[in-house]
Design goal:
heterodimer; A: 132 residues; alpha+beta; Sufe protein. Chain: A; three-stranded antiparallel β-sheet; 20% strand; B: 395 residues; alpha/beta; Aspartate Aminotransferase, domain 2; 2 domains; seven-stranded mixed β-sheet; 12 strands; globular
Chain lengths: 132, 395
């Protein structure tokens, strides 16, 4: 079985984009578990544009996990940044794989948690809004 | 860019002296050793010489060495061949094998296969937190049907050394009918593998861990040990392994064995010093713990658990800095399951994700080790910074 990563995956692992924490985020979400190995946290900053749409103005991630877990988190933040929440939620696992130029088959199911972390962060944002 | 290979337990480069010795056997002395013309004789002379070189290293008779393609094949032949032969003697009993939970997959899967066929019952001995079996447990596991005890000399993941001499002595004095197989794959370059002194009946090893090429291994079979060949065909290798001999590889294995025995004492103590430095400096880093026994370990393997870091990302970032290491992390395995060795030692799955193995060899220098220590510090810091704060979080 081929376990080789693409150059794009290695690039994101070596120099991850949007890595870290956002202070006072508008939404945050964490997924994964330690027994499986990968844990991921997403932080969002949301602003409204002139049309009243909610835009992800900033997004950051923190990940404990394998090369694929880190690279998929990193690439997702680049795909989601600047998009409306609606658009961002449409980013699929396939979009993530494509942006990385592919992933070893065995990694597809276990290591792409980024889209789920983003959903959780958005849910968190929506539920905090309701409270106010 | 640095290029530091610290994965000698996975495989080694072929020694130039070995390559040189093999060279003429590709195109000059290419004859089939089964033929008795000049060409054939030249080839069989090469095999004979290699067999002698290996027999000297193991202190056995040259006729007790069978060439195979790798340690896995040697192990398959030893276990399946012995069990088949024993069963032929008495079909009513199901032979019993005792092995350990931390053997290489070659032993574990062969044993499972024999169990599935109902050709053998197998006891898998547990190990303690250091990866060592207890002689007491072994003694207790022996039954009247036990025919084979199969225990690895040095564990490939954590480097722990099993009490091979004690096991051999126990079997020889109290249970002389039980055969003793030792997987010496990681041990041969660093420990005396005198099969007489250690009372070993079957010993497996491979070329590519001792600076010979891949694709060649050997099995020592003490004369009088019943074995039925598992690869049928011609009468090569004393009727124990059919198929035209790979003469160049056999010549290479002989030469590599002679060289490692010659350098054994010196190389063992040199690596021990490097290993000691590596272990003491790395375990100073918070959250890095040694795996395996602190003293009873082979001089070439240093293995660790790094908390809150995943092994595969550690390996990839180190590779980017020019360093080759290995990890037992599930995320880096073909089946995404954690290391059976670390599991058996009682290391939790969430910790074995951060496992790291550095294995040293003949080209490893003091400078390599210093650079590696610095690089590991850097990579661990980077990855921990990347990780979310997990304190107080239950998963």
């Amino acid at each position: 079985m081929d376990l080789t990563y693409t150059k794009e995956v290695l690039k994101h692992l070596k120099s991850p984009k949007n890595m870290g924490k956002i202070k006072n985020p508008d939404g945050e979400g964490m997924v994964g578990n330690r027994v499986c190995g990968d844990i991921m946290k997403m932080y969002l900053k949301i602003i409204k544009n002139e049309k009243g749409e909610e835009i992800i103005s900033d997004i950051k991630f923190q990940t404990l996990g394998c090369g694929a877990a880190i690279a998929t988190s990193s690439v997702l933040t680049t795909l989601a940044k600047g998009k409306t929440i609606k658009e961002a939620l449409k980013i699929s696992k396939d979009d993530i794989i494509q942006a990385l130029g592919g992933l070893p088959a065995i990694k597809v199911h276990c290591s792409i948690l980024a889209d789920e972390a983003l959903k959780k962060a958005v849910e968190n944002y929506c539920s905090t809004l309701k409270q106010h | 860019m640095k290029s530091i290979y610290l994965d000698y337990a996975a495989t080694t480069p072929v020694d130039p002296q070995v390559v040189k010795k093999m060279q003429p056997y590709f195109s000059d002395y290419f004859g089939n050793p089964s033929e008795i013309h000049k060409w054939g004789l030249k080839a069989s002379e090469g095999i004979k010489n290699a067999r002698t070189q290996i027999s000297k290293a193991l202190n056995c008779n040259p006729s007790e060495i069978t060439f195979t393609s790798c340690a896995t094949e040697s192990i398959n032949l030893a276990h399946k061949g012995l069990i088949e032969a024993v069963r032929n003697q008495d079909k009513k009993i199901i032979p019993h094998i005792i092995t350990t939970q931390i053997e290489h997959k070659a032993v574990l899967e062969t044993c499972k296969h024999l169990e599935k066929l109902n050709w053998a019952k197998v006891t898998y001995l547990p190990v303690d937190e250091f990866g060592l079996i207890s002689i007491n447990d072994l003694g207790k596991a022996i039954t009247k049907d036990t025919v084979l005890v199969s225990i690895m000399f040095v564990n490939n993941e954590v480097g722990s050394i099993q009490p091979i001499a004690e096991i051999g002595k126990l079997l020889k004095t109290k249970y002389p009918k039980i055969f003793f197989h030792a997987d010496a794959t990681q041990a041969l370059p660093y420990f005396d593998c005198d099969v007489n002194k250690l009372n070993i009946d079957l010993l497996s090893f491979t070329g590519h861990k001792i600076y010979a090429p891949k694709g060649i291994g050997a099995l020592f079979i003490k004369s009088g040990t019943p074995i039925i060949r598992q690869q049928d065909g011609g009468s090569q290798e004393n009727n124990l392994r059919a198929g035209t001999e790979s003469v160049p590889l056999i010549v290479g294995l002989g030469q590599a064995t002679e060289l490692i025995i010659k350098n054994r004492a010196k190389e063992s103590s040199r690596l021990k010093t490097l290993q000691k430095n590596l272990i003491s400096k790395l375990t100073e880093i918070p959250g890095i713990k040694l795996t395996g026994h602190p003293e009873k370990r082979a001089p070439h393997i240093a293995s660790f658990i790094v908390k809150d870091v995943e092994g595969e990302s550690m390996m990839l970032l180190l590779s980017d800095l020019g360093i080759a290491v290995s990890t037992g992390s599930a995320c880096n395995s073909q089946v995404l399951s954690s290391s059976h060795v670390l599991d058996a030692m009682g290391i939790a799955a969430e910790d074995s994700h951060g496992s790291l193995r550095l294995s040293l060899g003949k080209d490893t220098t003091k400078e390599d080790i210093e650079y590696t220590i610095k690089s590991i510090k850097k990579v661990v810091t980077t990855l921990r910074k990347m990780s979310p704060d997990l304190t107080g979080i239950e998963f």
